[in-house]
Amino acid sequence: MNIAVIGTGYVGLVSGVCFSDLGNHVTCVDKLKEKVEMLQQGEVPIYEPGLKELIEKNSSAGRLKFTTDLPSAVKDADIVIMAVGTPSLPNGEADLSYIMEAAKEVAAAVNSYKVIVTKSTVPVGTNEKIGNLIRSYTTESFDIASVPEFLREGSAIRDTLNPDRIVIGTESQLAQDMLVKLHGPLTDNIIFTDVRSAEMIKYASNAFLATKISFINEIANICEKVGADVTRVAEGMGYDKRIGSSFLKAGIGYGGSCFPKDTQALIQIAGHVDYDFKLLKSVVDVNNDQRYNVIRKLESILEDLSGKTIAIWGLAFKPETDDVRDAPAFEIITSLLQRGAKVKAYDPIATANFKKIFDHPDVKYCKVAEEAAHDADALCVLTEWREFQEISLHDIQSWLKTPILIDGRNIFTEQELADTEFAYYSVGRPSMNKGVREQSPILSF
Ligand SMILES: NC(=O)c1ccc[n+]([C@@H]2O[C@H](COP(=O)([O-])OP(=O)(O)OC[C@H]3O[C@@H](n4cnc5c(N)ncnc54)[C@H](O)[C@@H]3O)[C@@H](O)[C@H]2O)c1
Ligand SMILES: O=c1ccn([C@@H]2O[C@H](COP(=O)(O)OP(=O)(O)O[C@H]3O[C@H](CO)[C@@H](O)[C@H](O)[C@H]3O)[C@@H](O)[C@H]2O)c(=O)[nH]1
């Protein structure tokens, strides 16, 4: 089949590349000329394991092309997939200007029957609006479909090629048949729904996963006070098949390009139909506060942070990506600077992206982990990069001015800490706290 993919962000690029790998002819379109030129030369604008190799393979097989010429790509396509951004507006609603603009451009180019698929995450009712808009531009026949995307950054290719499920929301049998042909090689687990339900499945899934994270983070906060270990609690909960073990890692809260914006958007979607989504509002509040535990823990040891140098390891919102959108590191570093601290920061691959948005005279971006830790008053780990886990705590201790370690992602173990002198705080593991507080708080009933 011939596929046009509009937008070469994570979703557009990865799904376009994967569909070409399945033998389809795919043209990926972006309006950013520089991005397209990079891709044409085999350079990849994002860090995603395995992506470069797959682009090379399918480009040289002649199945994958990159262009700024949207009309030609649409004219040649049987299926048009829209995967442009839907970022947050200041009030939390999804900004639909990019998707509506893309839909207009697609409409103007439609020359024969097409299935027009939205993979971008869009509020319920958006696909219908897109359909109406296209209808106002063309008399050619077309069908719309909502096929939400569930890939995660860092494992985007694996997720796309081995999805848990594919959701196809369309009212048209022909569109459904064509989309089954496209996605059939990926999984047998294809769910057919109406368009609105497909749109809602995406928001509900992200909101539920965010809820699991805020839930376990609150359990972790209580564990710290009652002397339980959240990693054992999560393990014990996770064996229950009804609960499941994933997304129960306590830490400094979720970030990234999706959970923060999609939870806010769902609160707005509910608000538009006079529904106060209290649970999700709390999930967001808990998440926004969780990152400040790093500051509270630092202050409980160092008291005044003014004039102190704090090392930060990890700027990306999660490992295996250079994406820093809504990374907790922004608020944590801002908060340190407000308290008069200086920051030395290191990330294996996300530094350039972070620095582009956050250039500050009191933040020094370092080329290696040791440089950031060297002579610092404390070290905070904000992203669980494997590289950090492989560094010996004895080395870290020797680099720091004072051995203070706030482990925001629970990457170090009790054995590793054993004969070090760290004042150590992690998340929800009070028995591992060293040199900062008594081991088992006295509980009064
Ligand atoms: N990032 C993820 O992991 C992920 C996963 C699932 C779903 N989503 C959803 O998918 C959508 C895309 O997210 P992303 O992170 O891949 O996008 P992104 O914002 O990183 O990139 C979007 C791209 O679309 C291009 N674009 C915008 N308007 C265009 C137009 N009219 N014509 C051609 N190109 C155009 C932009 O130049 C940009 O390169 C969002 O709705 C997001 O919520 C993202
Ligand atoms: O147990 C966990 C799991 C995740 N996180 C954090 O949650 C955020 C999101 O992580 P993850 O879901 O792995 O990354 P994303 O790439 O943002 O993927 C999410 O958002 C995408 C965009 O909508 C969806 O497609 C995916 O299904 C959904 O997992 C990150 O900050 C993680 O550190 C935790 O704190 N604890």
Automatic annotation (TrEMBL):
EC number: 1.1.1.22
Pathway(s) it belongs to: Nucleotide-sugar biosynthesis; UDP-alpha-D-glucuronate biosynthesis; UDP-alpha-D-glucuronate from UDP-alpha-D-glucose: step 1/1
Any one GO molecular-function label of the UniProt entry: NAD binding
Superkingdom, natural source: Bacteria
Positions with a binding annotation for NAD(+): D30, K35, T86, T121, E153, K261, R325
Top EC class, one word: oxidoreductase
Ligand binding (substrate): F150, L151, R152, E153, K202, F247, L248, K249, A250, G251, G255, K318
GO BP annotations listed: polysaccharide biosynthetic process
Reaction catalysed by this enzyme: UDP-alpha-D-glucose + 2 NAD(+) + H2O = UDP-alpha-D-glucuronate + 2 NADH + 3 H(+)
Residue ranges of every copy of the UDP-glucose/GDP-mannose dehydrogenase C-terminal domain listed in the record: 311-414
InterPro entries for this protein: 6-PGluconate_DH-like_C_sf, NAD(P)-bd_dom_sf, UDP-Glc/GDP-Man, UDP-Glc/GDP-Man_DH_C, UDP-Glc/GDP-Man_DH_C_sf, UDP-Glc/GDP-Man_DH_dimer, UDP-Glc/GDP-Man_DH_N, UDPglc_DH_bac
Active site positions, chain numbering: C258
Alphabetical keyword list: NAD, Oxidoreductase
Family, as annotated: Belongs to the UDP-glucose/GDP-mannose dehydrogenase family.
NCBIfam families for the chain: NDP-sugDHase (TIGR03026)
Full protein name: UDP-glucose 6-dehydrogenase
Annotated source species: Paenibacillus abyssi
